[in-house]
Amino acid sequence: MHFGTHDQLVLLGLLAVMAALLTAAPAARIPFPVFLVLGGLALGFVPGMPTIQLPPDVVLVAVLPPLLYISAYNTSLRDLRQNARSIGLLAIVLVIATTCAVAAVAHSAIDGFSWSSAFVLGAVVSPTDALAATKIAHRLGVPRRLVAIIEGESLVNDGTALVLYKVAVAAVVAGTFSVWNAGLHFVWNVVGGIGIGLVIGYLIAAVRRRLDNPPLEITIAIMTGYFAFIPASAAGASGVLAVVTAGVYMGWHTPELTSVQTRLQGDGVWQIITFIINALLFALVGLQLSHILDTLTGTSSAKLITYALLVTGTVILTRIVWVPIGTYVPRLASRRIRERDPYPPFAYPIVVSWAGMRGAVSLAAALAVPLSTKAGTPFSQRDLIIFLTFCVILGTLVVQGLTLPALIRLLRLEDDGSAEREAAKGKIRAAEAALSRLEELVDEGGVREDTAERLRGLYGFRRDRFASRFDDGADGSVEERSQSYQRVRRELLEAERSAIVGLRRDGVINDDVMRSLERDLDLEDARLDV
Fold it and tell me: What is the pLDDT of residue 511?
């Protein structure tokens, strides 16, 4: 394939525009997924823009596993357990309800749209994508439980939706549908996916326990999503559930398997990987829409717009109706639930119901719809399914993504401070453990008295500082002393950094030495919270 000068210039232009969009998004205070979708959409209609087509399964197999793995890895198992009922009602019941509602609307309103294809569309657009919603929530400081529920839902509902999707696609491809076979297929997808994920997680943990090589360990972590997804898919089980299970398993066990260097390097690598993958995916949403429209020339623009509004409206409305029901009806019906988990403010379900943006998973599933059936005929309404999925992603990201901040401000939701309180408790306990261990070392004769006294002062002050946050009678002097110290410490670290850079500039030290020293200073700087 010849890659000519024109193609190189087009590629350069695309990269420049993406970089500009990513740079402008923070300044505009708009979540970058929204910015990239709109930017990609505008680019897609620029005359002379090359057609971008991705083969089926490329996004589903190549891109989705690492995104799912890192989301599952970072998920709090405790939060999943504490919010299991809320997450289950959203990630299982709401997904099924959305799939059925969209299927009913598509079948009745769109000419020639079979029930099988309608259920494929419903399953594709039913899972949410927490990326945009949680970025907004973290930025505006909403209560932590809301963020935990939205993130937990987006993780679990991927598995539910894609299991339904596999069943629906299999029905279209085979040309027949059996409730018994579909039920068995569904059960195997769930049980097999979770089982394979646990096995892969156990094996990966066993391998990494024997390693002490940060680059190798990070590479294995990146590949873990594929190690779980591919065998599960080959076995006819849910690759998504396998990846999610392996991710949660590794997230729980990784602290005992890794070194400081592996964790520090891994955090940076994962941030870059997830950012780039999400940026490319959301830009592709907009870039491919013009090509999809070209394949639908037999349908009038008015009908396409009507179909898009109907499906997008059904997705949004189903969530708005269901969330208050799932929030309050269980509490009305069960005294035990009310006592264990009292009624939340009505602002909570309002925000959750409006935080149902769609994204990468829906895009991947739509693009993975097969081109043809077993009989060799084209997959019914494939192009329309992809178009309507793009419209749902675009509509929910733009409409809900742009208005969610205003809604949160209108409802006056604020961070409940639970994360900070838990962090303070952890730091108090860590300081007490360090002091206890220090006394053991002193008794063993392994620490000089002047060294021990200095460390007692350091950890004692740290313990008192965070303990004062739980003391309503504290005058704030301990916190003020800490803040003053940290400001001075940061100024001194900056002076050290400037001196090291000056030595490199004068040729006294080389770049490797400079970076090593600079990293040590950066790690010290990162511990300061001023």
Answer: 79
- Cα-based torsion angle of the residue sequence 458, 460, 465, 466 in order, rounded to the nearest 10 degrees: 110
- Say which residues have a Cβ less than 8 Å from residue 168's Cβ, sequence separation at least 6: 116, 119, 120, 122, 123
Task: Say if residues 38 and 81 touch (Cβ distance below 8 Å).
Answer: no
pLDDT higher for 472 or 192?
A: 192
Place of tokens 């987006």: 154
3-state secondary structure of 378: strand
Q: Which neighbouring-strand residues pair with 413? A: none
Per DSSP, helices labelled H in 334-381 are 335-340, 347-354, 360-367
Closest by CA position to 407, among listed 456, 448, 458, 351: 351
Better-predicted residue by pLDDT, 164 or 40: 164
> Among the residues of 89-213, which ranges form H helices?
95-109, 115-125, 130-140, 144-174, 179-208
Query: The whole model's pTM is what?
Result: 0.81
Predicted confidence band of residue 1 (pLDDT cuts 50, 70, 90): very low
Phi, psi of 378 (to 5 degrees): -60, 145
- Two structure tokens written together for 516: 């090593």
Angstrom distance (rounded) from CA 156 to CA 520: 39
**Helices 115-125 and 360-367 sit at what angle, rounded to 10 degrees?**
150
436 and 443 Cβ atoms separated by less than 8 Å: no
Name residue, tokens 């929530």: 137
By CB atoms closer than 10 A (0-12, 13-18, 19+), residue 147 is buried
Under a CB-based contact definition with an 8 Å cutoff, are residues 413 and 142 in contact?
A: yes
DSSP string, 425-441: HHHHHHHHHHHHHHHHH
The fold adopted by the segment(s) 5-416 is: Na+/H+ antiporter like fold (1.20.1530)
- Tell me how far apart the alpha carbons of residues 392 and 387 are, in angstroms, rounded to a whole number: 9
Q: Is 1 helix (H, G, I), strand (E, B) or coil?
A: coil
Q: Which of 134-138, 148-152, 343-347 has the lowest mean pLDDT?
A: 134-138
Give the count of beta carbons closer than 10 Å to the beta carbon of residue 105.
Answer: 22
Inter-residue contact 172 to 380 (CB < 8 Å):
yes
Look up residue 256 and give its two tokens.
């005992």
